[in-house]
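pasting for ref
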Amino acid sequence: SHYKAYRAGDGSPTKEKRQRPGQLHIFFLDFSTAMLANVLHSRTCQEWLAVNEAKSVEIANRLLKCLTIPRRALPPSVMMHILICLSYFNKTKAVQSFVDGPTCQ
């Protein structure tokens, strides 16, 4: 079979939970998006985003694209972290202009 099965926590095979090859585990997605939100909230990162406007817009656009992923593919906690990240980008003038402009989809 193309599926690998893991029991939550210990990594041993079981029939309870299946994961496709190349698919990220839910705990990794949850942790990484929470960590990203914490990094984006830091003053150092906010200052960097203000100086690097093009990169700020690129990252914000990638996060916006994550919102187009079907709801059942992403858990609510991951979607919440993505929305929190986007709220921190709202403080950046370049991102505000991008969101208000015609190129934002």
